[in-house]
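Shipment paperwork, digital attachment
Item: protein structure file
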Amino acid sequence: MVLVINAARMTRSAAAVVLGCRQMDGDLNLAGVIFNNVARPRHADMLRRAVEHYAGVRVLGTIPKKRAFDIPDRHLGLVPAGEDERLHAALDALAAEAERNLDLDGILAVAARASPLAVPDRPLYPPPVPGACVTIGVFRDRAFSFYYPENLEALEAAGARLRYIDALGDGLPPVDALYIGGGFPEVLAAGLEANRPLRDAVRRAGAPGLPVYAEGGGLL
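Attachment content:
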């Protein structure tokens, strides 16, 4: 295991955190530590010396505190990647910093020593439904972006064809059911309101019984 610690306003106490995590679980194989939010090189050196001296755990690198790494968020959590291009810039900056400041070879060596993950001895998805030939419309855009990939894969494995719909601009294609996932439709309410043809089409299709499954923001 590699422990990642937020090192803001922390020096020697970082060693206490590492020792506490190791002491709490005797079966924990703590192979290294990465420090995040490091103020400056002197701070990084103090953290490294404290942890390696008092805890005897290898420090695999540090990530400095920079405004370029800020990931946009709001009251409900992180801003989805589809809404804000600043996220991509922050991830690119973090990737470049990781290559400079992390012992990537050491991290890969730790990963190579890890025990294999237990895989259930059963099919991942149910077998296809005989004769299944349905098309499921999936709202997938900036407003509705929260989906577990496994759910979509399971639908396809069962024989369904998925057709993705942009609720901000598309119409409703011929479908046998609708799946509307979570997201932040309230943030993009103006765009959703402007696409009245889609809303009307969903209302007309749902009234006589078109199956519609929605969750989270999609339920709103």
